[in-house]
Amino acid sequence: MSEAAAAAATKSWINGDESARQMLGRAQASRPSLSLPAPLHRIPLRAGNVVEIAGPSPSAKTQLLIQTAVSCILPKERNGVHYGGLGHSVLFVDLDCRFDVLRLVEMLRHRIVQVNGCSCTADDEEILKLSMRQFSYIRCYDSCELLAALKTLHHRLEKEKESNGIGGHLLMIDSIGAFHWVDRASTSLPLGGKNRKYLSLQNVLEVVVEDLRKLMSAHPMLVIVTKATIVGTTGNDFRRNYKRWPSAGTFDASSELEGLREPYFREYMPPIWQSFVTHRILVRGSDDHIAMPKSQENNTAYVSEWLLPRLNFLDKFVVRNAGVFLVS
């Protein structure tokens, strides 16, 4: 769009008058809500939201990212077959450096076979390739590489938009606190060059948040990050500002709520990151082992709890080869 056209559109918007219904319709058209798989399905999420999946290791955080990525990159419909995906692109930034692409492909195959009800055919392989083209992967080994990658994302998304006709819809970061303790042990981060300013631990997150804000303003997208938690006896507790609730949910949550009282998880990310996050869900392992239908083995159960916004129930889920499944 030329500068004259942009100025005319801006002037028209300023001088225009619209009803609340028209305003909501315009907002939903430009930033529609995304139907994500469980347990992220409880809250309507859309471009501009920053979702933090927090939990100790292991608590299936990366599995939730992969499950969500599969649902996004699968097409909605292809050759008259409804696959139930969103047909959106996903940009995955791996800071843990443990991402298993074979696991992504395996879950994609399961979803495709589930739709067709038979083993993969040539058409299914084409759907698999089409979906994988929607998935972009970046691996960073330290904070300097992360900062450099964020600086290049705008250009990368612009190129993909020109070549594929679509921009980024979903940005995933696994895990945002991966370099926290290494950076904390260092007095500063050398960025090279005599005239370069050294970045402290606090400044790193400030630059990360600033770059993400700029990226999201130019390319409206949903951001989902994982964060490993640590157990603490002092400091800022995730739940300290929230009241407890009576037992509720899709199962008897009374014992689960008691188990969540101690230990609690200590917040270690700086305030600038905490204020950047718009939604937070806490996941953790459970002592329960659940036998799923048509399966002779017991699966470890996990529990998810929405903290921001606060929901008065828990979800219990298991992870299998085909993906994440809620337990009723």
Q: Give the topology string: H per helix, E per strand.
A: HHEEEHEEEHHEHEHHEEHEHEEEE
Query: Could you state the CATH homologous superfamily?
Result: P-loop containing nucleotide triphosphate hydrolases
- Overall tally of structural domains: 1
Overall SS class: alpha/beta
For the sheet with most strands, the description reads: 9 strands, mixed
Oligomerization: single chain
Task: Report the portion of residues in β strands.
Answer: 15-25%
Molecular structure report:
The chain has 10 helices and 15 strands. It has 328 residues and is of the alpha/beta class. The chain has one domain: Rossmann fold (3-Layer(aba) Sandwich), CATH 3.40.50. The strands form 4 sheets. It has a 9-stranded mixed β-sheet with strand order 7-6-8-9-3-12-13-14-15, covered by helices on one side. β12 and β13 form a beta hairpin. The longest helix has 22 residues. The protein starts with a helix and ends with a strand. About 7% of the residues have low confidence.
